[in-house]
Write a structure and sequence with these properties.
Elements lengths: L4 E3 L9 H5 L1 H14 L13 H4 L2 H15 L4 E5 L6 H10 L14 E5 L5 H12 L3 E7 L5 H18 L1 H6 L1 E5 L4 H10 L2 E4 L13 H9 L4 H14 L10 H15 L3 E6 L5 H15 L7 E6 L8 H6 L4 E10 L24 H18 L4 E8 L2 H21 L11 H10 L6 H12 L1
Parallel strand pairs: 2-3, 2-4, 4-5, 5-6, 7-8, 7-9, 9-10
Antiparallel strand pairs: 1-10
Helix pairs in contact: 2-12, 2-16, 4-10, 5-10, 5-13, 11-16, 12-16, 13-16, 17-18
Bound molecules: 5-phosphoarabinonic acid.
The site of 5-phosphoarabinonic acid (PA5) has 14 residues, from loops.
Length: 449
């Protein structure tokens, strides 16, 4: 197996093959409009051919800026929220040692994230941590005006200036923002920060293969060329001419839409690897923000097995039957850890001695899948040969492409997010932001009633 494999065998007890066959024509229609840029949100399709169109020079430039910091700093703080951090965080977590240990002469900085919340404790602790480290900041915001990263950037920029002085601090800041809009662009130009541009036609949650994802991943020492190469392979595999059953993005989009129309309104992303928790977070944003509108959409949830089999497992097995599972199965782990033989067998585990931990994990995976299908939970299985840059590139591009097709099948615009403004308007009114005077009056009146 050299590529991502999609298996929908365990959807077929719930949705007939005939029903899925009917999606062949529908998806052909939507894929055509996607590629001809004639569907909804066509101004935000810059991500579609990014894997094949990104130039070697632009990758080199990203690698060069990342390399400049390698030996100079211990920590790179990436400031951003939503699509401006989740893709990088997903890849870095998936590929990093769980306890920050690296083999060989690895000299890459530790990449941490800030500005993805407004927690005072978190921010205070970031500062505690940075007090004792040599560090630099990569600030990412397409709009350049998002409140959470703007607050974190102001605080950290001040900390950096106090620590290194204005001139050196300026050299330790890289910004990634729009070419000509927003406060961050203005600040970048005024202060002369090094910067990369987020293309106007790429939305946050589709921006993994722009500097938004690529720079932090390169800063953490991972191979962005392989990530792009994997995505390029998936771009090839999901072209308009690809027959329906050979196009995993079309089949995944169809299977989940067919299930949604029957009953399940919740999709659970499940994996058996704790390193994939943030991949699930990235996936949740992608599908939740793309499809959850006009009172439609599959609610994206996630679990990490086997830990969550001891908590959420009960609900999935026997709770309301309105869900289906999408399982990411990694075929070959990087490490080999064997279960030892013990003479006494006090814990009764000798029947497993000599086996790898992964042998047990795989049987847990198979056993769970059979149990959940028996319990009425349809199962979509996505197999990846290994957890590396190349296959993550395939997987993440696959999810993006499938999400676009799926959104079109649901007849929504998968590239906008009008609903996220509601909380911001209330927050700005409550904080008495200039320009929100009328809203401020109304909201305080409402609260006092
Ligand atoms: O997908 C999206 O568009 C959002 O999640 C944005 O990425 C997020 O709101 C951050 O926006 P910005 O990059 O403008 O700060």
């Amino acid at each position: 197996m050299n590529n991502l494999e999609l298996n929908i065998e365990n959807v077929l007890p719930f949705v007939s093959k005939k029903t899925l066959d009917e999606y062949e024509e529908l998806t052909r229609y939507h894929i055509k409009h996607l590629h001809q840029r004639t569907g909804k949100g066509a101004n935000f399709l810059g991500w579609l051919d990014l894997p094949s169109s990104i130039t070697s020079e632009s990758i080199e430039e990203i690698e060069k800026v990342a390399a400049e910091f390698n030996k100079k700093i211990e920590v790179m703080v990436v400031v951003g929220i939503g699509g401006s951090y989740l893709g990088a965080k997903a890849v870095i977590d998936a590929l990093s040692h769980s306890f920050g240990m690296y083999s060989g002469d690895r000299t890459f900085p530790m990449v941490i994230f800030a500005g993805q919340n407004i927690s005072e404790d978190y921010t205070g602790e970031v500062i505690d941590f940075l007090d004792k480290k040599s560090y630099a900041i990569t600030v990412i915001s397409k709009s350049g005006t998002t409140t959470e990263p703007a607050i974190a950037f102001r605080i950290l920029r001040n900390h950096l200036q106090e620590k290194y002085g204005n001139e050196e601090a300026g050299k330790r800041i890289v910004s990634i923002t729009s070419a000509n809009r927003g406060a961050l662009r203005k600040l970048t130009d005024e202060k002369g920060y090094r910067s990369f541009v987020i293309p106007d036609d790429v939305g946050g949650r589709y921006s993994l293969l722009t500097p938004v994802g690529l720079l932090p991943i390169a800063q953490a020492g991972f191979d962005i060329r392989q990530l792009v190469a994997g995505a390029r392979k998936m771009e090839e595999m999901t072209q308009p001419g690809t027959p329906f059953w050979d196009n995993p993005a079309a089949v995944y989009a169809s299977a989940r839409n067919a299930l949604y129309l029957q009953n399940p309104k919740n999709e659970i992303f499940a994996s058996y690897h704790p390193k994939l928790v943030y991949l699930a977070e990235w996936w949740k944003q992608l599908y939740g923000e793309s499809e959850g509108k006009e009172k439609k959409g599959i609610f994206p949830a996630s679990v990490n097995f086997t830990a969550d089999l001891h908590s959420m497992g009960q609900y999935i097995q026997e709770g309301q039957r309105n869900l289906f599972e999408t399982v990411i199965s990694i075929q070959n782990p990087v490490r080999e850890v064997f279960i030892p033989l013990e003479k006494e067998d006090g814990d009764g585990l000798n029947y497993l001695s000599g086996k790898r931990i992964e042998d047990v994990n795989k049987m847990a995976e198979l056993g769970t899948m059979l149990a959940h299908v028996d319990g009425g939970v349809p199962n979509i299985l996505i197999k990846l040969p290994e957890l590396n840059e190349y296959y993550l590139g395939q997987l993440m591009y696959f999810f993006q492409k499938a999400c676009a097709i799926s959104g079109y099948l649901m007849k929504v615009n998968p590239f906008d997010q009008p609903g996220v403004e509601a909380y911001k308007n209330n927050m700005f009114a409550l904080l008495k932001k200039p320009g929100f005077e009328e809203e401020t009056e109304l909201i305080y009146k409402r609260l006092s009633e």
